[in-house]
Design brief:
By secondary structure, the chain is mainly α. Helices cover about 70% and strands about 5% of the residues. A 3-stranded mixed β-sheet has the order 1-2-3. The longest helix has about 30 residues.
């Protein structure tokens, strides 16, 4: 039926395009960083570049990917929060390999984008209850993914500036 075909507003397509571009933006950010710089946290104690990548990788598969699948397969599932700080500490992100982490993030993100691109208008409205947030639709989840990406990309821009200043001073 023609009514079952998704009719997406430009904002939806823009959101998906942004999510698609995030791995490339991260890759460009990493250009020229030494291994030591990759592992150096921001001066205020926030994640290093490597910790950001590992966090995004794990959240993409264990958070967003799982949430998308459950919202498509179950009626109003309870979706657990993903404790990023805890995962970073337990998994020792700063000892991992950046290339592998970015490749895994990119792969998981591609899978999730494919699922989101294939949604019908009706499926976009499927909902779940996200711990600490409340009821969210798949459309809102994609918007939250973008907001989260924007936050981490901003953090990495600040980190890049700090590293540049350190090079200039040192």
């Amino acid at each position: 039926m023609e009514n079952d075909l998704p009719t997406f507003e430009p904002a939806w397509n823009e959101c998906l395009e942004f999510l698609t571009q995030t791995p490339d933006k991260i890759s460009k950010f990493l250009e020229g960083l030494s291994d030591t710089e990759m592992r150096r946290p921001e001066s205020d104690g926030r994640f290093s570049a490597l910790e950001n990548i590992c966090h995004l990788r794990d959240l993409e598969s264990e958070g967003y990917g799982l949430r998308i699948d459950r919202m498509l397969d179950e009626a109003n599932p309870l979706l657990p929060d993903f404790d990023g700080a805890r995962a970073a500490a337990e998994r020792n992100y700063n000892q991992q390999q950046s290339d592998a982490a970015l490749a895994e993030f990119t792969s998981s993100r591609r899978r999730n984008i494919e699922k989101l691109r294939g949604l019908t208008s009706e499926e976009m409205q499927r909902a779940g209850t996200l711990e600490g947030v409340g009821d969210v639709t798949l459309k809102r989840l994609a918007e939250m993914m973008r907001e989260h990406d924007e936050s981490h990309l901003d953090d990495m821009r600040v980190l890049r500036l700090q590293l540049k200043r350190s090079r200039e001073i040192g």
